[in-house]
Amino acid sequence: MTHINTSGAAPAALLAAAALLLTCAAPARAAAEREPAADWLLLGVTRGDARSGLHPTDRPDAHTGTTRGALLLCDPPSGHARAARACADLDAADGRIEAIPPQDAPCPMVHAPVTAHARGQWRGQPVEYTRTFPNRCVLEVSTGAVFAWDGGR
Q: Is the peptide bond preceding residue 76 cis, with omega within 30 degrees of 0?
């Protein structure tokens, strides 16, 4: 008759299993700590002045208030043609669109208001932004590449 003594094997197996779990969990935990917060902004640009309801083509038969938009993702950059630049602009301004330094570029003095909207999060902080600009050019020189998803400037 054969007898197997397991009194010493059980604690050793438990110790081995615990060591294996700790070894596997440590890299996963370290990777989770290194991952940046999911940065995203839902962007929109509406023709006209959304605050007053005025539009450049106010006529009874005109289609006004057309909105175009994009979802800007920054981990990795995607969502429009200049996503990497937009993410860099936001990163330099700590996610505050109003803090993006304006570019030195000429814009025509044409009254064709556009209202920019942004909602989302940057580095875990909520972002809410709405501002009306005299025209699309002024919007783009004031906000960097954030609203330039057509590949503009």
A: yes
Residues sharing a CB contact under 8 Å with residue 17, sequence separation 6 or more, in sequence order: none
Evaluate whether 118 touches 91 at the Cβ level (below 8 Å): no
How are strands ordered across the β-sheet holding 125-133? 77-78, 67-74, 40-47, 114-122, 125-133
Dump pLDDT digits (tens) for 80-123: 889 999 999 999 999 999 999 999 999 999 999 999 999 999 98
Token pair 């304006």 is found at 102
Angstrom distance (rounded) from CA 131 to CA 50: 9
Whether the full predicted model's pTM is greater than 0.85, yes or no, is: no
Cα–Cα dist 139/97, whole Å? 11
Q: What is the DSSP string of 82-108?
A: THHHHHHHHHHTTT-GGGSPPP-----
Place of tokens 């991952």: 35
At 98, give phi and psi (nearest 5°).
Answer: -65, -15
Contact between 121 and 40 under an 8 Å Cβ cutoff? The reply is: yes
Extract the tokens encoding 141.
Answer: 């020189």
- What is the rounded distance in angstroms from the CA atom of residue 145 to the CA atom of residue 84? 9
